[in-house]
Write a structure and sequence with these properties.
Blueprint (H helix, E strand, L loop, with lengths): L1 E13 L3 E8 L4 E6 L3 E6 L2 H11 L5 E9 L3 E10 L5 H11 L4 E3 L5 H9 L6 E7 L3 E7 L15 E6 L10 E6 L2 E6 L3 H14 L4 E4 L2 H16 L14 E3 L2 E5 L2 E5 L2 E3 L4 E4 L6 H16 L3 H4 L4 H16 L16 H7 L5 E2 L4 E11 L2 H8 L14 E4 L4 E4 L4 H23 L6 H23 L8 H24 L3 E6 L2 E5 L10 H11 L3 E15 L2 E13 L5 E4 L10 H14 L12 H16 L10 E4 L12 H11 L9 E6 L6 E3 L13 H16 L6 H9 L25 H4 L1
Parallel strand pairs: 10-13, 13-18
Antiparallel strand pairs: 1-2, 1-8, 2-3, 4-6, 4-7, 5-6, 8-9, 10-11, 11-12, 14-17, 15-16, 19-23, 20-24, 20-25, 21-22, 23-24, 25-26, 26-27, 28-29, 29-30
Length: about 750
């Protein structure tokens, strides 16, 4: 018997031994073991049909028995237990019986293998473990020595190999492969394929990376390397387990929360991880450290969770809690909605509370933010699909919704509680250490990773395809959220503050003499005591500007504002620079306007910076007119919201996608298409077309319009009318400034060299 300590790194089915389990040892080596492991699932239905299934399965290599298991809603349930000794045989067996017996109810079938393993042995990905191994490298026991909820867990020093082509393969054929590990960097020419494969094979053997982090690895790189391997006769296998070939997962297009998404083909490795940073949904927000945090918390492998939506992570957490509690996990089943009258539906189905902001710019604005408000409500008020609309005596009533909530801890609160507590602790730690602390980036990545999980936890309650979802619990959360934010508003006003804006879980408030976070502490204590929900001052801003609708300056927009922090950074929501479809040229110009305004901490003095703003913008317009802006800064990126054949009138992004389809590129719903606005008949030119583009065809007027809107979006709260800005920049309109505003005729020509003639 040998003992090892290290981190659970990977596991997958083994055709002979059940499982192959990889451990990154404390000795710095990677160890491969085997372990026997069976898969158990359950079937419910009429007795005669279960009897027929029993007879059918008697000839199969399975173990059968009748038993009772807990259903989340109906309690103890008679089921047929089917135990499959080898995991590798499970998928085919279930597919077979589901086709023959589609009328039966199945449980614990579509659960990832690693979640089953985690539930069986109380471990998780990258758990720090003690492993006992028998002869033949067979695991006899595995024990976790830490939990996913530690703020500073002991983690392995991962060896990371970075690989990427020198250009996006969708735009042009890469000429070089850029390889980096530790302090070493290689630039390898694709004209020398043997050299590329030789260097990569050498690195895999000698450096033995734990993680291969690529750009376009899923959708291009590994396919290209396989082609080079066949062309040259040079073997190439990026797996640590050389008995395996790489595993591919098909591309997919789907809708999620009203948005179209596309995930390209995936390449997964055995014994080491592969993560493609260009084929991930939220990886860019938190990087590898955040992906590791999500893997530890959710139980899914890092190379899986990095590519999946946060909703998949929450679903995994719920399934893991159910397995550990002995609760049946139904196969694609959701509990139906409790019936309501029209009046009840009107009260219940309202969503989060939003107050329209007071337009203008205000000094010393603080944002009070409930930390993970909806998940905190689920935990604190025990909101779960099976706890809402209960008939239990030990329950409390939500009179407005006419539903009772059980006091018995629900599945969802039990799942979320440790994660919510951890995120609150990290958020408060970030406040304490400050941005200049060397640990800040690390903890910020963890906070962002957990934030995404907390954000979607609420949505899963009402999601139609959620295994543990029920719209009544979803409505109960928003109802309590509305009550809590209104109670917080009352407390804020009782403390003499003015509420400028409310957005679901945040209050924008100010009081002239309250300029530091300490001035809000008693207020926070009062709100937290009344609501039982954690709340913090996100920031006290030097000034905050609320932007109106573009077509009507009297109509506020709830999610369009920007605020200057004391350190000169901005919080920006809804402006052009935050939108994906804004060209870099336009976003960068808007950012430069904000940088100029950041010089002034007093909002009443911002008008003095107007000459600098206009001068900069005029220079940018001149550069655009004289074709001095690089074409890649004019690229517009938009998502294809449907399949091309479903467009009745092709939008600009659809016209660009059709151009790409014409030259043989495969286009799918949810893909991000890049294009330029042009003066051609089609009005666009797809960026990834192979033919060279003539810069003279750029639609300069269209880009000027986009830039003008972006600049006015920032200047409008200061009081600059649209026609005034038009006159200053283009000389195309007469204008009158509001009374009390700085008269532009007082500027000296030396101060405004590029546009003084427009002002005087």
């Amino acid at each position: 018997m040998k003992k090892y300590t290290g981190w659970l790194f990977d596991l997958y089915p083994d055709p002979k031994h059940g499982l192959t389990v990889w451990l990154l040892g404390e000795d710095g080596k990677s160890h491969s073991f085997t372990q026997e492991f069976s898969i158990t699932f359950y079937v419910a239905g009429p007795f005669h049909r279960l009897r027929q299934l029993w007879k059918y399965l008697k000839e199969k290599p399975v173990v059968l028995s009748r038993t009772e298991r807990d259903d989340l809603y109906s309690g103890k349930t008679d089921v047929l237990e089917v135990q499959v000794p080898n995991p590798i045989a499970f998928d085919e067996l279930f597919k077979e019986i589901n086709q023959r017996f589609p009328d039966l109810s199945y449980y614990d079938v579509d659960i990832p293998l690693i979640l089953r393993y985690a539930a069986a042995f109380s471990v998780f990905p990258l758990a720090y473990c003690k492993v006992e191994v028998e002869q033949g490298w067979k695991i006899s026991s595995i024990t976790a020595l830490d939990t996913p909820w530690e703020l500073d867990p002991k983690l392995p020093n991962l060896r990371i190999l970075h690989i990427q082509p020198d250009i996006n393969p969708a735009h042009a054929t890469p000429q070089y492969l850029l390889v980096e590990f530790q302090q070493f960097k290689y630039r390898l020419s694709f004209e020398k394929p043997r050299e590329i494969l030789g260097v990569l094979n050498s690195l895999l053997m000698q450096y033995n990376p734990d993680v291969i982090l690529t750009s376009y690895g899923d959708t291009w790189l590994f396919t290209r390397l396989e082609e080079l391997s066949k062309e040259t006769g040079t073997l190439f296998n990026p797996n640590r387990d050389l008995s395996r070939s790489i595993r591919r997962k098909k591309e997919i297009s789907f809708h999620n929360y009203g948005q179209a998404h596309y995930r390209g083909e995936q390449v997964h490795l055995f014994g080491r991880w592969h993560i493609d940073d260009q084929n991930c949904m939220t990886f860019g927000d938190y990087g590898l450290m955040g992906a590791i945090e999500q893997a530890r918390v959710c139980g899914l492998p890092a190379q899986e969770i990095a590519r999946r939506s946060p909703g998949a992570g929450i679903a995994a957490m719920q399934a893991l809690t159910a397995l550990r509690r002995g609760i049946l996990v139904p196969y694609q089943q959701q509990k139906g909605e409790v019936s309501k009258t029209y009046d009840q539906l009107f009260v219940a189905d309202r969503g989060g509370l939003v107050f329209e902001p007071l337009l203008g710019i205000y000094p010393h604005v603080a944002i009070l933010d409930f930390i993970s408000m909806y998940p905190s409500i689920m935990v604190e008020y025990n909101i779960s699909p099976e706890t809402v609309a209960t008939d239990e005596e030990d329950s409390w009533l939500i009179p407005e919704l006419n539903v009772k909530v059980s006091s018995r801890e629900g599945l969802i609160p039990a799942t979320l509680k440790p994660m919510v507590h951890k995120r609150v602790a990290i958020k408060r730690l970030l406040k304490k250490i400050g941005k200049n602390d060397s640990r800040y980036v690390h903890y910020k990545a963890l906070a962002n990773a957990l934030k995404w999980l907390c954000v979607v936890a609420y949505g899963r309650l009402g999601f139609a395809n959620s295994t543990f979802g029920r719209i009544n619990s979803h409505e109960a959360v928003t109802h309590i959220g509305r009550k809590m934010i209104l109670r917080a508003k009352e407390i804020v006003e009782d403390h003499g503050f003015t509420v400028l804006h409310i957005y679901v879980d945040s209050l924008f408030i100010y009081r002239p003499e309250a300029t530091t976070e300490q001035d809000y502490q008693s207020l926070l204590n009062g709100i937290e005591h009344e609501t039982k929900l954690p709340i913090e001052v996100e920031e006290v801003y030097s000034w905050m500007a609320f932007v109106s609708a573009r077509h009507n300056s009297n109509i506020p927009v709830a999610n369009r504002f920007f605020g200057l922090q004391p350190d000169g950074e901005y919080k920006v929501r809804g402006l052009a620079l935050r939108r994906e479809d804004t060209p870099f040229f336009v976003a960068d110009t808007q950012q430069r306007v904000l940088q100029i305004l950041a010089i002034e901490k007093d909002p009443n003095q911002l008008h003095k910076l107007l000459p600098d703003v206009l001068s900069m913008v005029q220079e940018r317009l001149s550069a655009l007119s004289h074709q001095k802006i690089p074409l890649n800064e004019l690229i517009v990126t938009q998502t294809l919201s449907r399949e091309l054949d479903q467009y009745r009138v092709p939008s600009p992004v659809a016209r660009a996608a059709l151009q790409l389809q014409t030259v043989g590129k495969i286009i799918r719903m949810g893909q991000r298409i890049q294009f330029l606005y042009t003066t051609t008949e089609q009005g666009v030119h797809a960026w990834d077309l192979p033919d060279e583009f003539n810069p003279a065809l750029i639609d300069v007027s269209r880009y000027k319009e986009l830039l003008f809107r972006a600049v006015h979006e920032v200047l409008q709260p200061i009081g600059i009318p649209e026609n005034a800005l038009l006159g200053w920049l283009f000389g195309e309109a007469s204008y009158m400034l509001p009374t009390g505003w700085l008269d532009p005729t007082q500027f000296q020509k030396s101060e405004l060299p590029l546009f003084a003639n427009l002002l005087i």
